[in-house]
Structures are given as C-alpha cells and as structure tokens.
Amino acid sequence: MSGCGCRQSPVVIGGCQPAGAGCPPAGGHGGCPGSRPSQHCETTPLRDSAPYRVAATASSTDPTPYYTIANTHAALDPLVARTILNGGTGTFPADDGTHNGRHTWLAGVVHIDPASVRGNPTGVTVSASVHVHNDGPDAACRLYGRFALWNGTNPIRTDLLGPPDLPAGGDDNGVIPPTTVSLADVLAGRIVVELNLETGNDDTCRVGPKQWTVDSFVLTVQASAPGCGRPFLRTTCRGCDGVLTCTTDTLDGSTPYTPVPPVVPDTSCQDRCSPASPPCISTDRGNALTRGSDGCLYAPDTPTLDPSPCNAARNTTGGLLVPRVDLTGIAPGSNSGMERSVDIDVAEMPGCPERWRIGARLTPVSAFLNSERQHADLLARAGVDVPIPESDIVLPEAGVYHIDSDVRYALGTATGGSGYIIGWLRDETTDTLLTSFTQIAAINAAKQEQQGGTTHIMTEYTVTSGPRTVRLHLMLVRTGGTITDAEAGGTDSNGATRMRFLKVRD
After folding, report:
1. Burial class of residue 1, CB neighbours in 10 A (0-12, 13-18, 19+)
2. Peptide bond just before 226 cis, omega within 30 deg
3. What is the spatial distance between Cα 56 and Cα 267, in angstroms, rounded to a whole number?
4. For residues 411 and 414, what is the distance between their CA atoms, to the nearest angstrom?
5. If we measure between CA atoms, which residue out of 53, 56, 41 comes closest to residue 230?
6. Among 170-174, 235-239, 317-321, 496-500, which stretch is predicted with the lowest mean pLDDT?
7. Cis peptide leading into residue 164 (ω within 30°)
8. Which of 169, 228, 262, 329 has its CB 3.0 to 4.6 Å from that of 118, i.e. a possible disulfide?
9. How many CA atoms lie within 13 A of 191 on its CB side?
10. pLDDT score for 225
11. 197, 92 in Cβ contact below 8 A?
C-alpha cells in the first residue's frame, strides 16, 4: 500500500487538518485497490461583502451656506482651497486685527466616479482627515474651528477642532469619522466637507490674529454590496461518510482571512458586481439620445441645428463643434458702460461645465477722508496759497467724479478789522484748478469778534486717466484793520475738514 499514498501522513490544505489519512481528490484516480479513502478536501473561490474603496474627490465651492459660527466670516481664496482639497498645502491668512471672532472657511463638494461603484448600494460611508498648524503670531482661543460634513444645508457631522487654546507653533489633526450618507445625495453633489479656522481676534480669550498652514487632506469613500467584496478561497474537508470535518478561509491558500457576510460564489459576481454602469439618459425633451428595446443607446447621425444666425454650434467633419469660451477675470472699471460702473463676477468651474455662475454688481469707486490734523495757521502766511496735504484724495481711474469738501475754519479780530478766507480744490497731478475760489468765511468788525464754522465746496470733475491727487488749498486775504486769528483746514472740538468723492459714470 506504500506506493499509492493511502496510508501516508495526513496533509494540511489551507489550514484544514484532515482527521485521518489523506484522501485523493474527488473523482480522482490512483486509489489503492480494495482501499476506502478516509477524507476528501476541496477549495472553492468565493466573494464576500467587505466594503471597498470608491474613487472620490472634493472640489472647492462657495462656503457661505455653511457660515454658522463666529461673529465675522471670510471665504478662503478658491485657488488655495482647491490646492488643499487636492492634498496640497495652503495657508489660511491671519486677519488684519480689525475683526473680533473672525473665522476663515473653505468647503468642498464630494464627488465619486460612478464607474467605481459595484453592485447596487444605496449608501456609502464618507470620512476625511486634515492636518493644521498654527503659524501664529497668537494662540488660538478654546476650540478654535470645525471640520464638518454637510448634506445640503443640514450638518450631519460637526466635529470641533482641539486641543483648546492651541499655542503658536502647535499642530492638530481634524477627523471626520466614517459617516453613512445616501449614494443618491453624493451623486447629486449635496455632500460637502467644511473646514473653518479662527484667524481673527478673540476678546473672550484676549488673543490676537493667527495664520494657519493646512495640509494632508485625505477623503475616503467606501461602499458595500452583497457579494461584491473581496475574493477569497474556502477549503472544506469531509469524511468518507460525507460529514464536514473542517472549513478554512484564506486569501491565497495560506493567508488566513475572515470574510464579511453574505458570501456568494465568485462566478455569480461577474455581472452583478461589475463596475461598469449603464449611462443615465436625460428625460429632457430636447435630448436626442434614446435607448432602444435592445438596451443600446441611439443618437441621430447628424444633430439638427437651429438655423438662427445667433447659434454658434456647427457641424464639422469631426462632429458637432461648440466654440469654447475661456472666462478670465476683469479688472474693476474696465467692463463698464456710459451709464454705470459694473463688475462682472464669474465663478470658476472645473472641466467643461454646462452652466456657469455669473454675477454683476454696481461698483462705483468712492472714498471719504477726515483731515485729522491741527488747523493750518493762515494768519502767519496771509496772502499766500496754503496747500493742505492732509486733505489729499486719490481718484484711481478715468471717469466723472462728484467731489465735495467740508472746510472747518476760525476767523477773528481782537480790536476790529476786516478780511476773508478763500478755498479751492486743485488736481495736483496735472496742476489743474477744479473749482473757482470759494469764500470760506468773512469778517468786517469795528471791535472784537470771533467766528467759527464749516463751509462746503462741491464740484464735478472729469479725468481721462488715473490716478489723480486732489488737494484743498486755502488763503487769508486782509482788507483792513487787524486780523488776530485765521486758521482752517483741520479738526477741532466742533467739527472736521472732510473730503469725499464718488465716481458717477465712466
């Protein structure tokens, strides 16, 4: 019997220890004449239902719908947000010190590749992690930010960032634990990851602004469908009476593995778990694609084009051609008409979007200035042009401007006298007079008299190019007697000299 192996030492198949002597494979040949095999083992390829990774990305979006904490808000530069969401390094800049409680925000819409979804799951799990470093110069206040997950405008995870009062130079890791969301909501672009950090002052903790370096953003999306998980091998052994003696699951015949139920034969997974998904057909009446009774898609050989001269689409030998429009930023003031100043805003969209987000707003250039200085002493320079540099306003670009000034003054005589103060506006860049001389104040007293008040100078001025600097000029003119006090162009306890401009048209 030694030559046929029926009495040889037991063998281990996939970790399954046969109960007695080794048995030949089922249906095999080579059994010893007159012998009965004591045990039979066989290995079957199966597939379990373990979660699998779905290809996913996050694209930067407007964070405004997610402003729910802090007193003031600032949106992170979209280019910086995109870099961070792509796994790069970006900076949340510190506030300029004028905003208490300011937080800076980014938001990213979760996208998945439908072709990487196997089976027919109704939900997926979303998780994310990110690293933040407090660049300073100040410490953070308490729990200083949030790493959150949203479904539309409803928060489904709002994990605060800690440890509390993170000092300058400190590090932290934000984590969104695995959270189950609807697959349909992910495909509809409703699932959003949001990160905000405290970048301004905080009166509660008495800390100032701080900058943050953010990196190592990782987004993970997993799905699970029955029988669409990991392939593995199951080895079963039975005695000669058909009773199961042992079962062992392995990945490759030797590496132990614990499958996730339910488990199905591997051959049954080929179609049901295929990542290839049939395309979705739009129900819009203008859609020329149709699905035939055989399940295939059909499209007209040549698209029907509207003959209107306004239609930019045309047929070419290579197919239907639609001109691409590359949208670039437009500087304020350069995209305006004769009546208004209008800025056009175009929200940058990745790829080749079918819809663009375009907005417009009136943006008239304007400014307001208080001459925060002592009054100029006109008495010491009577009859001389006295410029007031502290009143300078700068017209930044070509256009028509409404300009006005409130001139604060004081004029008096102790023994009697007469005189007046005049003022005018001048374009210092081109040495052009904007207004004729305007009487600011006048006095004609036989004895002691003291005046004080504010006089208005107003004009409309057209410039062909900018910038242009406009300045207030003053002069005291004596006409008789003794003037003992003449000053103007500054600020006192009763008022101030002010300069204003507003661009009214191009």
Report:
1. exposed
2. no
3. 28
4. 11
5. 53
6. 317-321
7. no
8. 228
9. 26
10. 83
11. yes
How do residues 355-378 score in pLDDT, each as one tens digit? 667 776 667 888 999 888 899 999
Helix (H) and strand (E) counts for the chain?
3, 34
Q: Which residue has the tokens 């002069």?
A: 475
Structure tokens at 343: 């800025």
Q: Looking at per-residue confidence, does 347 or 397 come out higher?
A: 397
**CA–CA dist 17, 41 (Å, integer):** 10
In whole angstroms, what is the distance from residue 110 CA to residue 186 CA?
Answer: 7
Between CA 450 and CA 126 the distance in angstroms is 78
Query: Taking every pair of C-alpha atoms in the chain, what is the biggest distance, in angstroms?
Result: 151
Can you read off the two tokens belonging to residue 184? 């349909």
Distance CA(157)–CA(137), nearest Å, equals 30
Q: What is the 3-state secondary structure (H, E, C) of 65-77?
A: HHCCCCCEEEECC
Rounded-to-integer distance, Cα 203 and Cα 156, Å: 30
Cα separation, 120 vs 115, in Å, equals 12
Strand segments, DSSP code E, in 396-484 are 399-413, 417-427, 432-433, 438-445, 449-463, 468-481
Any residues with CB less than 8 A from the CB of 336 and at least 6 apart, and which? 342, 506
Record the tokens describing residue 121, joined without a space.
């799951």
The DSSP 8-state label assigned to residue 101 in this structure reads T
Residue 1's identity, in one-letter code, is: M
Per-residue pLDDT, 291 = 64
C-beta of residue 102 within 8 angstroms of C-beta of residue 199 = yes
**Rounded-to-integer distance, Cα 457 and Cα 437, Å:** 10
Work out whether strand 357-362 and strand 366-370 pair parallel, antiparallel, or are unpaired: unpaired
**What is the mean predicted confidence (pLDDT) over 302-313?**
71
Residues in a beta bridge with 246 = 237
pLDDT band at 31 (very low <50, low <70, confident <90, very high): very low
Checking if the pLDDT of 34 tops 70, the result is no
Residues in the chain: 506
Across all residues in the chain, what is the average pLDDT? Answer: 82
Q: Is 379 helix (H, G, I), strand (E, B) or coil?
A: helix
- CA separation for the pair 225, 52 (Å, rounded): 9
- 438-476 residues labelled b (16+ CB within 10 A) or e (exposed): bebbebebeeeeeebebbebebebebeebebebbbbbbb
